[in-house]
Amino acid sequence: MFEAPKTNYRVPRTVSSGQDETEGDGVQVRRLIGVPALDMVDPFLLLDVFSVTGNQDRQTGFPSHPHRGFETATYLLAGQVRHEDSAGHSGLLKAGGVQWMTAGRGIVHSEMPEDSNGPVAGFQLWVNLPKSHKMTHASYQEFDANEIPLERRGAQVTVKVIAGTTGRGTTGPVRQPLTEPRYFDFQLGAGAAVVEPIPDHHNAFIYMIDGAIEFPGDDLSIHPLAKETVAVLSNGTELRVSAGTDGARFLLVSGRPLREAVARSGGFVMNTLTEVQAAQEDFRLGRLTG
Length: 290
Ligand code: FE
Hints:
Elements: E1 12-16, E2 19-23, E3 27-33, E4 44-53, E5 62-67, E6 70-78, E7 80-85, E8 90-94, E9 98-102, E10 107-113, E11 119-128, E12 139-143, E13 150-153, E14 157-163, E15 182-188, E16 193-197, E17 203-214, E18 230-233, E19 238-255, E20 263-265, E21 268-270, H1 273-284
Antiparallel strand pairs: 1-18, 2-3, 3-4, 4-11, 5-10, 6-9, 6-11, 7-8, 7-10, 9-12, 13-14, 14-15, 15-19, 16-19, 17-18, 17-19, 20-21
The chain binds fe (iii) ion.
Residues 62, 65, 67, 72, 109, 111 line the site of fe (iii) ion.
């Protein structure tokens, strides 16, 4: 008897528009991952979307705060962010650039938006580290916009490749073999289609920056994905989407799940509560120096 091949397309399994959170010294962020509705997408612990309007009187941002046990990946769409840490590392992240920080055993840092004219906008993604690497030394991977490859697929589709390798062979500059992250920023013209392989063992999500995309199939329960929503994708080996009449821009992020216990509080993500308490104690004693 003939049996139709089981579809391998990844489609939205959970869709969420997140919730507003106040971070730093009063910055409003939209948290898509790391909230009760969507606790995590292993190995991704948190996704924040921020858009700060410059204010010449009072520059709000993310003053001195600690991290231990994971990585923070900041991808900036507009403006610039000055950062400085307890290990003496500092710099300026500019629009289109990415900072992939391995906090490891711990750092204390500040991240302060600098433009006073326009918005400072972007994303912060938290990527977990396995138990074996949570106490590694802190390190950075930092790339300006011109160091992030732009893959062109005809006139209608471009992909900025931050991490991992696309189905067409473009490799981004960020390296992390522990979780194999893929981090792609897709831009589609009106009605344009994308076919993109995703490793079957990866967990994957899409964040819609702008426009809308549709998924294949005649399952009416799968609605088009709208602007400013996150969709956790089902298992499968391939993404197939097409943009609506306004085109679309979205992040496609995937990675190898760690499947380890997660104990988190504030900027500390460990495996046990005892380890979180040890991190808080080390922070109090000024020991988070990279
Ligand atoms: Fe931080």
